[in-house]
Amino acid sequence: MAEQTAPRPMTVTTARTAAQLIALALLPAREFTVVCRGESITFQSTFMDDTAWDLLQFVPGNFARSLYNANKLSDKQLAWVHKLAVDFAAAQSAPQNDTNPSQFDALFAAFEAAKSKGAKRLTLRFDGINVKPNRDNSALWITSQSETEMGDYGMKPKYLGKVTPAGCDSRLSDTVKEIIMGAADDPLTAAIRYGKVSGECSCCGRELTDPRSIERGIGPICATKFGW
To answer: Does 1 score more than 50 pLDDT?
Structure first.
């Protein structure tokens, strides 16, 4: 049986702010399940469907934009609407000193600088994790350096969660969040520290062999590519 679709509700929320929409979360909690990279995630939402849908106008990323602009939604898509809305609301209400967007600016800027120079397959490595931007640099995917999972083409680094300008994914452990926040404060220093400890360049993952690169903790080409 084909999935039922929900028509886009008629709303007048163009004048409402994100905070006003979040304040409308008054319904009894409903349970939803989404599948992300093979992992089932069950969560609860107190938003009405149309309120969750309208919140997506404030959520960065192509996926949120495509859902917001859709005329109809399948049950699976509606569950994702609520997931993105709930995560966005949680990030907005989190303490500023834990998910202050300004703390991520330098990290996003480093990837933006590398992309502007034509660099591809970008990754920065920090203390056991890999940080990789999505296509439009609106989010950073975090994977493990020590754990793997099955992907479409074999084993791959395990996906841990993501970082957006609004904050850290709730799935990220406190240890991983601490590493990310430390790197976000000063990406270059974190990259150099990783290089000196591991003997590998944080930017390309290659072994540092040139004496100057070993001393500095990062290769000169990679440092220039990331705007350092």
So the answer is: no
Residue recorded with tokens 């479409």: 152
What's the whole-model pTM score? 0.60
| Beta carbons of 11 and 50 less than 8 angstroms apart | yes
pLDDT digits (tens, 9 = 90+) for 26-41: 668 889 999 876 778 8
- Edge-to-edge strands of the sheet including 124-126? 124-126, 129-133, 140-151, 154-164, 167-168
Q: Name the packing angle between helices 105-116 and 187-198 (round to 10°).
A: 80
Measure the N-to-C terminal CA separation of the chain; round to a whole number of Å.
55
- Listing DSSP states for 49-87 in one string gives HHHHHHHGGGS-SHHHHHHHH-SEEEHHHHHHHHHHHHH
168 has which bridge partners?
Answer: 163
Instruction: Tell me how far apart the alpha carbons of residues 97 and 158 are, in angstroms, rounded to a whole number.
Output: 28
SS3 label, residue 38: coil
CA atoms within 13 A on the CB side of 109: 14
Q: What is the DSSP string of 106-129?
A: HHHHHHHHHHHTT--S--EEETTE
Q: Which residues of 172-191 are buried (b: 16+ CB within 10 A; e: fewer)?
A: beeebbebbbbbbeebbebb
Structure confidence by residue, pLDDT tens digits, 58-114: 888 888 899 999 989 999 999 999 999 888 888 776 554 444 445 889 999 999 999
For the record, the structure tokens of 213 come out as: 């690169």
Cα 148 to Cα 82: distance, rounded to the nearest angstrom: 28
Q: What residues contact residue 109 under an 8 Å CB cut-off, 6+ apart?
A: 227
Coil, helix or strand at residue 93: helix
